[in-house]
Every structure is written in structure tokens, then in C-alpha cells.
Specification:
two-stranded antiparallel ribbon, 11 strands, 24 helices, about 550 residues, 5-stranded mixed beta sheet, alpha+beta
Length: about 550
């Protein structure tokens, strides 16, 4: 345990040094990640879950946002795991500080879990320590540190493999293994259901492959069957979430582009701008990768890739390296999406096209399977280093670790938290009561109105929100308005009809709103605005 604690301290210090150095002095006013609004959803859920549970309401059926029709979290857990566990911290220091603390914790815990697994495989401290870094601070992690907190908490995967390895070796009893694995699966469901879906998918394919690679070993069959039992226990325990989705007609799963958000073959050896060490011409190649910055996490680098291939092909202790090699190859093949691309050019159909027809697969992003590729590569590096003491091997591995270092010159690792004195000074109490509905600009993805709503303690209801989708199924007739709220590209008559249909009491125009958007609001509302603190408040008559 002392070694695990030492590793955790190293990883936590590294996370603070890389991403928290500009946040430590003002954790309530600066945030780890970019200035985008994605992270405001998680900050909002930190307040929403204890608020809803405290009033004995269904937290999955949101009525404080997307008013008056509401929003259903559907097949997701609505960030329940982090929100509930972090309730005491949120209550004492607020959602922004909580978010910062959890990002650092996510990196350190994920790296530590990989360290424990690697140490179990290698019985060596330093190779395991390096493996923890390669996984916990991988390119996948760099992308999601920017604004996707639950996707950075990826400790459950190596922890589950650690339990399986102990059970395979006979160091863990059946009951302890099934209950322990079920607990990890439940935790992963409550953190990010997509990662659990990807893990189950890989496990279903790798199980038969493991039978072929490891031989007809009864221990493997035992672990596989008990893992299925653990998954069954997990399904029973999370059944309230699943039943809620079915009974409330929440089968809607937002479709996302599996083609765009997939790994480019060239990305394995060509880094994006998130990585510090880039060869000349790398930026030109990476500019042709499809997908958003957060999803370009396929980079391993030539040194790590070379070590992983050497370890997988080696003859010493063939079982573990070859199984990890298969895991690396399969997860990489799936991460390429439905069509394989090299520097943006489509060259062949991809393995993901076989997966696409599965339920909820339309909402999964192939690029996120690079998480599993990174773990397999990290463990292969640890095995290769532990196999033989060699300064040459360590030199190559350390070069590979440096090649993954983040580009600290970018302005993506920390940002100021936008706030409005109208909300900080609780001026909204003059205009809004608990059941009143307000439209707050800048809207949704264009601003941080969800954080302001959360910091008000859900003191009113919010029109729309930033929940990962632009328009809910029940709001499709107003899709043009929701798209135009951030830019002002709509007619005053259309906005007037929208405000009436959504029973809006007032429109709050806070700093950061585009002038065109406010001009449309002024034309849609008959009364002139009231200037209060730093906001213009347009009172809407019934």
C-alpha cells in the first residue's frame, strides 16, 4: 500500500504541475480546461442531484432546465456517481472548486489504478510507475481534461483487470471477485455509461480470443463466467436507471458522427497540437484529422508503439504480452470507426461498421476506444522494461513518455470562470421566483448560464440548457430558435412566439451576449430592459 500511495502522490503532483498550476491560487475563479461550456453541465449536476434528492424528486427527470417540457437523462446516469459522492465538497466550496479537485483526482486515481495492475503483472515498481503515467496521462486523457470530467475518471478499467488477474492466479475468492467486479462496473456506469459499453464490447470479443491465446485453461473459463455474473449483478443494481429510461420513453439516444469522431491511422504516430513534442510537418498532417480536439486521442508515438509491438511479439512470458497485443490491435481497429482514414483520406471500410447496428452504438464514439489502446500499450511497455534491465530500453521508454507530454503553451489547460454580478449578487430574486422560467443569454453552449443557474441553487427554471445535445426530441419544432439563441440569427416574431410557448417570465442578457442576439430580444419584447448590476433584464408580459 505504501508503494501505491507513493505512486498516487507522484501522479497527483504531476497533475497539479501540468494542469492545475494556474488554478491553485484561485480555484473558484479559474478552471482546469478550456473556456468552453461543456464542463458547465457537470458543475450543474453537482448541484442538481442533491437538490432533487433533497426534495424527493426523480433526478433523472429534469424540470429545472429545458423548462417547461423538461429533460430526461434517459440511458445515461446523469453524472450521478460524481455528483452524489462530491455533495459535501460542493456544499462547502461550490461546483467550480469541486470540478477542479475532481479533475486532479481523476488523473491521479486513473494512473494509480494502472500502476497497480502493471505492478501485479511485472512485480516491478519503476516499470509500473511509468505504465501508470502512460495510461493516466495518455493522449486520450489530454483531450478530455479540456472539458469532459467523467471521461477522465477511467480507473475502473485497470482496477477490474487487476481483480480478474488476481482471480486467475487464485489470489481472490469467487464471492469477493464477483462482488468487487460488480462494484467497479456499477461505478463505471454511474461515471460514464459509454466507457462501460465499450469495455463490455471488447470483453465479449477478447474472451474467445483469450481462450485461443492462453490455451484451454479452466481458470480463464472460470474468470469469464464469473465476470458475466458480475455484469448481471451490475445490471440488477442499475435497473432503476434502465427502468426509468424504458418506462418514461427515454429510449432516445443522441446520434453522433462515428465517422468524424474516430481515430485517424496517422494519429498513432502524428500528434495533434495538444502534444508538446511535434516534428516539422506534424501540424499540417494533424489538421486533416476529423473530429473535435477532445476526441483526437489516438497518439501513442513511435517509441511507445515500437516497444508495444516488440513486447507483444516477444517469446518471454508469451501469454500476457500476446493477450495485451490482441487487446491493443482490436481496440485500435475499432477506434478507426466505420471507415478507415489516413491523414483524412478514406482508404477502407472499418470494423466499427459491424458494431454500428447494436443498441445505443449510434451514440458511442469510436475515438474513445483509444483509452483501451493506451492501457494495453502502457502495460506492454511495463512488461518489456521488467523483462530485462537495460539502460537502452529505459532510454527509449522515457523518450516515449516525453513524447506524450502536453503542450503547455496552449491556452486550453486553464481558463477564467465567466460570472455575472447579476447572479453573484442574487439580483435575480427581484424578478424571478422558484417556478418562474427565464431565458438567460449567452445561451447554452455560447456561455456559462448553467453554472450561474447552479450557483443560484436552482432558484428558478431555465429555458433549454447545454446537455450534450442542441435540441431535445420534444423541442424539435423550435430547433431554429435554439440554434439562433447564441448568434441572434432569428426573427423577433419567431422569438416572441418561442417566449410565449415556453411561458418565459423574463430574459436576462448577461455579459458575453452577442449584440445581434440582444437586438432580437429587444425587438421581440415590448418593454425596455431594466439595467440591474451587469445585466439587462427584459420582463415578458403574459
Amino acid at each position: 500500500m505504501l508503494r501505491v500511495l507513493a505512486a498516487f502522490i507522484v501522479y497527483a503532483g504531476l497533475a497539479l504541475a501540468l494542469f492545475g498550476r494556474d488554478v491553485v491560487a484561485a480555484p473558484a475563479h479559474r478552471v482546469i480546461g478550456d473556456g468552453g461550456a461543456d464542463k458547465t453541465l457537470y458543475m450543474w449536476t453537482f448541484v442538481w442531484w442533491p437538490h432533487a434528492l433533497g426534495q424527493l424528486r426523480d433526478p433523472l427527470a429534469v424540470d429545472s432546465a429545458w423548462a417547461p417540457v423538461g429533460f430526461d437523462f434517459g440511458w445515461t446516469s446523469g453524472n450521478a456517481g460524481l455528483a452524489v459522492v462530491a455533495t459535501p465538497l460542493t456544499a462547502s466550496v461550490g461546483p467550480v472548486v469541486t470540478y477542479n479537485a475532481l479533475i486532479v483526482l481523476a488523473l491521479a486515481v486513473s494512473a494509480s489504478a494502472a500502476f497497480m495492475l502493471a505492478r501485479r503483472l511485472t512485480r516491478a515498481f519503476l516499470p509500473a510507475l511509468l505504465a501508470g503515467y502512460l495510461y493516466g496521462f495518455s493522449s486520450y486523457q489530454l483531450g478530455h481534461v479540456v472539458g469532459h470530467l467523467p471521461l477522465v475518471f477511467v480507473a475502473a478499467l485497470p482496477a477490474a483487470l487487476h481483480l480478474a488477474l488476481r482471480r486467475f492466479e487464485g489470489g481472490l475468492g469467487r464471492c469477493a471477485f464477483v462482488l468487487g467486479l460488480a462494484g467497479l462496473l456499477i461505478a463505471q456506469f454511474l461515471l460514464a455509461t459509454e466507457v462501460l459499453f465499450d469495455a463490455a464490447l471488447l470483453g465479449a470479443v477478447l474472451g474467445p480470443l483469450g481462450w485461443l491465446v492462453l490455451g484451454r485453461d479452466r481458470r480463464l473459463v472460470r474468470v469469464a463466467l464469473e465476470s458475466v455474473a458480475a455484469l448481471a449483478v451490475c445490471v440488477v443494481c442499475v435497473s432503476p436507471f434502465l427502468l426509468h429510461a424504458v418506462l418514461n420513453g427515454a429510449a432516445y439516444v443522441p446520434e453522433r458522427s462515428a465517422f468524424a469522431e474516430s481515430v485517424d491511422v496517422a494519429n498513432v504516430v502524428v500528434p495533434t497540437r495538444l502534444t508538446w513534442l511535434r516534428l516539422p510537418g506534424a501540424d499540417d498532417v494533424s489538421s486533416r484529422f476529423t473530429g473535435t480536439t477532445a476526441e483526437l486521442g489516438g497518439y501513442l508515438g513511435l517509441p511507445v508503439l515500437a516497444i508495444a509491438l516488440l513486447a507483444a511479439a516477444g517469446r518471454t512470458r508469451p501469454r500476457a504480452p500476446r493477450m495485451l497485443g490482441l487487446a491493443l490491435a482490436l481496440s485500435f481497429a475499432l477506434s478507426l470507426g466505420p471507415r478507415v482514414k489516413i491523414a483524412g483520406e478514406v482508404v477502407a471500410p472499418g470494423l466499427w461498421s459491424v458494431i454500428a447496428p447494436l443498441p445505443v452504438a449510434g451514440s458511442a464514439l469510436p475515438a474513445r476506444l483509444s483509452l483501451f489502446t493506451s492501457l494495453a500499450a502502457a502495460l506492454l511497455v511495463a512488461l518489456w522494461l521488467a523483462e530485462r534491465r537495460s539502460s537502452g530500453r529505459w532510454m527509449l521508454a522515457l523518450i516515449g513518455a516525453v513524447a506524450l507530454a502536453p503542450n503547455l503553451g496552449l491556452g486550453l489547460w486553464s481558463a477564467n470562470v465567466p460570472r455575472s454580478t447579476f447572479f453573484q449578487q442574487r439580483r435575480y430574486e427581484r424578478f424571478l421566483e422558484r417556478d418562474d422560467i427565464a431565458l438567460v443569454l449567452p445561451y447554452g453552449p455560447a456561455g456559462w448560464s448553467m453554472l450561474w443557474h447552479a450557483e443560484s441553487g436552482m432558484a428558478f427554471r431555465l429555458v433549454g440548457g447545454h446537455f450534450g445535445i442542441h435540441v431535445t426530441p420534444r423541442e424539435r419544432e423550435w430547433a431554429d430558435v435554439y440554434e439562433g439563441l447564441g448568434t441572434g440569427h432569428m426573427t423577433p416574431a419567431r422569438l416572441r412566439a418561442f417566449l410565449a410557448a415556453h411561458v418565459v417570465t423574463c430574459v436576462v442578457v448577461a455579459p458575453g451576449t452577442r449584440p445581434r442576439a440582444e437586438r432580437v430580444v429587444a425587438a421581440a419584447v415590448d418593454h425596455p430592459p431594466v439595467r440591474t448590476a451587469d445585466a439587462h433584464v427584459y420582463v415578458v408580459e403574459p
